[in-house]
Amino acid sequence: MKLQKILSNFQKLHPKEIDLSLDRIKNLCEKLGNPQNNIKCIQVCGTNGKGSTISFLHSILKEAKIKCNVYTSPHVRSINERFIYNDEIISDDELAELLKKVEDINDGQPLTYFEALTAAFFYGCRKYKNNIVLAEFGLFGRGDAVNILNKNLCNIVTSISEDHLDWLPENERNIERIIFEKTSSLLDSNIIVAKQSSKEITESIKKNTSKNKANKYFFNEDYSFVIKENDFFYYEDKYGGLKIPKPSMKGQFQLENASTAIASLRVLENLNIKDKHIINGVKKAYNPARLEEIKSGKLKNLVRDNTLIVDSSHNPGGSKSLNEYLQTLNCNKHVIIGMMENKDHEKFISYFKDISSLTVIDIPNQVNAISGKKLKEKFKNFSNLSFSENIEQALKDLQINQNDIVIITGSIYLTGEVLNLN
C-alpha cells in the first residue's frame, strides 16, 4: 500500500524514534516555504487533557461555523486521525499524496518520524489558510516539532504531571524540570493555564512564565466552574457566567478540560464565540478512548449486559483522574491493564482502590510494551491479580456478576487495539 510504504520510508530516516531538536524540522519547513508561519494556531501543551481540551475547542468552533485543521498525537486507531483539515479526517489517498510531496522535498535528509508527520501537517494547512489550527505539542515542549511557530493565537497549558521521565537527565527527573520544558518556550500572545493537581505546580508555572509578556489566565483566578445539580455545571469568567449541561464525556476532569477550552475561546474575542456555541459544543464534544463506553461489537458481546469502558490513561496523573471517576460508581470494578515499558507502573497502579479483579495483559503489536508477566510481577501485592495472554482471553476469564463494570486501560496503544478488535 502506497501510504504504508511512505510511512516506512520516514521511519528509516533517523536512528532514533525521538530526538528532541528543532534544527531538522526547521530546515525542512524552510524548503516547504515555512507553512507554519501562515496559520492561526491555538497550541495546547501539558501532560494530561490535551486531546480532550482540543475536542472541546473543536466542537465549540464547529458550532460557531469556524472551520478547523487539527493535529494531535498519537492516534488511537489510524494515523489519518492526526490529520484533520476543514473538520474532516484526511483520506488514505490524500495523506499519501501529502506525505509523498514532503518526502520528495526532504530528499532523504535525516528526520524523525514525528518530524516528518508534523512538517506534512503544516504543509497541508496551505490549502486552508483561513481555518483555525488546533495543534497539540507534547513530550517536552521546547524540543517538540510542533513548537516551531513564530506566532499563535494562544497557548493552553493543561494539567502537568510526571511522565516520560526517561527522556530527562537522571538528576532532573522531577516535576519542576517538566514544567520548565513545557512552558519556558511559550509564545507571548495569551497563556491559559488549566486546573493543576496542586498549588505548588500552579505556582511553579507562574514562576516559569513570569518573564513572558503574554496575557495570562489561571484557573480559579481568572475563570472557574462549580458543579450544579441536574447534570449542569456553572462556568464563570470576566465575561460573565454560563450554565452549561455536562458533556457526554465521562469524568469530572472533563469539566476542567471544557472550562479551559471555554476560557481560551472567550479570551479570543475576535472569534465572536456566543453562549449557544459553547453550550452546544460542550454537549457534543467527543474524544475516543477517554472513558469511552463500548456499547456493541465483538468484545462487548463477551461481557454481555455489563458495562465495558476503554480509557487511555497511561501515567500517574491520568490514573488519579480515572480512579476519582471510578470511586463515584457504586458497583464492582474489573480492570484489565497493559502498559508501555517506560511508564511508572507502580505509581500508576497505586491509585486503584476497591477493585474486584485486576488482569494484566500484553499489548499486541507494540515492541516497546512491557510484557504482562513482568507487569504482574510489579503488581504482585495487588489482590485478585491474574495474567491473560490477550484481550479476548482476559474478558472471557472474568468472573463478573450483574451490574459489574469492566475497564480496559493503561495505554493509548492498548485502547486502539481494543477498538480495532471490537
Question: What report would you give on this structure?
Answer:
It is a single chain. With 422 residues, this protein is α/β, with parallel strands linked by helices. The protein has 2 domains: 2-284, UDP-N-acetylmuramoyl-L-alanine:D-glutamate ligase (3-Layer(aba) Sandwich); 292-421, Mur ligase, C-terminal domain (Protein-Tyrosine Phosphatase, Chain A, Alpha-Beta Complex), CATH 3.90.190.20. It contains 15 helices and 17 strands. The protein has helices at 2-11, 23-31, 50-63, 92-106, 113-124, 175-183, 199-208, 253-267, 275-284, 298-302, 316-326, 345-350, 372-378, 391-397, 412-421; strands at residues 40-45, 68-71, 84-85, 88-89, 132-136, 154-157, 190-193, 215-218, 223-228, 232-237, 240-245, 292-294, 307-310, 333-337, 357-361, 385-388, 405-409. It has a 6-stranded parallel β-sheet with strand order 2-5-1-6-7-8, covered by helices on one side. Strands 12-13-17-14-15-16 form a 6-stranded mixed β-sheet. It has a 3-stranded antiparallel β-sheet with strand order 9-10-11, with helices on one face. Strand 10 and strand 11 form a beta hairpin. Helix 2 packs parallel to helix 5, helix 4 (92-106) crosses helix 5 and helix 6 packs across helix 7. It is globular. The model has no long low-confidence stretch (mean pLDDT 94).
